[in-house]
Specification:
single chain; 2 helices; 18% strand
Length: 56
């Protein structure tokens, strides 16, 4: 999580990113869109975030 040192990551976010990476998941349900639009999985893969923004 050191790569996000300029953007504070709380324990819950770190846990979700770690578990998604470990389980090879890329879809996440969260209202914390700003952070999860920044975080990346191995290979710089972006998360698919639900619920989608209005109009998406």
């Amino acid at each position: 999580m050191a790569q996000y040192a300029d953007r504070p990551m709380d324990f819950a976010d770190a846990t979700l990113v770690h578990l998604a990476s470990r389980e090879r998941l890329s879809t996440i349900l969260t209202v914390d869109r700003d952070d999860f639009e920044t975080y990346r999985l191995p290979g710089r893969k972006k998360f698919t975030i639900f619920p989608r923004r209005s109009g998406s």
